[in-house]
Design goal:
Strand order of the largest sheet: 1-2-5-4-3
Number of domains: 1
Number of helices: 5
Strand content: 15-25%
Low-confidence stretches: none
Mean pLDDT: 87
Order of helices and strands: HEHEHHEHEE
Radius of gyration: 17 Å
Shape: elongated
């Protein structure tokens, strides 16, 4: 079976050896699509979280009490998404495709995540929240 050849652009004539799309990563549960929750926080682009960050975020809800009773894992994920959206809005960063998001308030110890905006499967802008090094 012959591999796909790239026909246009700077890589024209090169052979595609391997391709792993965002859709495949979501289907494989490597990424978790949180776009619906993210829209309630003000995001207008598709948003996904790595499964590791998503699972940790849900876990942080267990046993935490912010004076309003124990939050559900779904509430915790939404709070993190709203915090990420506000971090983007407040940022003065230009010419960058990523921002660092402090998770100390959520995780209870120093930890950070990365907010990355980049091309999706069809070159549309998409946002991914992940731990550093999970790219």
């Amino acid at each position: 079976m012959a591999n796909e050849m790239i026909s246009t652009g700077p890589w024209a004539g090169f052979e595609v050896i391997h391709r792993y799309t965002r859709a495949q990563a979501i289907a494989d549960s490597v990424l978790v699509d949180v776009t619906a929750k993210a829209r309630t926080c003000g995001f207008t682009l598709p948003v996904a979280m790595t499964a590791t960050l998503f699972t940790d975020c849900e876990g942080w809800a267990e046993g935490s009490d912010w004076g309003r009773g124990e939050p559900t894992p779904e509430q915790f994920v939404r709070w993190l998404l709203c915090f990420a959206c506000e971090t983007i809005r407040a940022s003065r960063a230009i010419n960058t495709d990523r921002l660092t998001l402090s998770l100390a308030h959520f995780a209870g110890h120093p930890k950070s995540a990365v907010i990355h905006i980049g091309p999706g499967d069809d070159a549309e802008p998409v946002i991914t929240l992940m731990y550093p090094g999970e790219e």
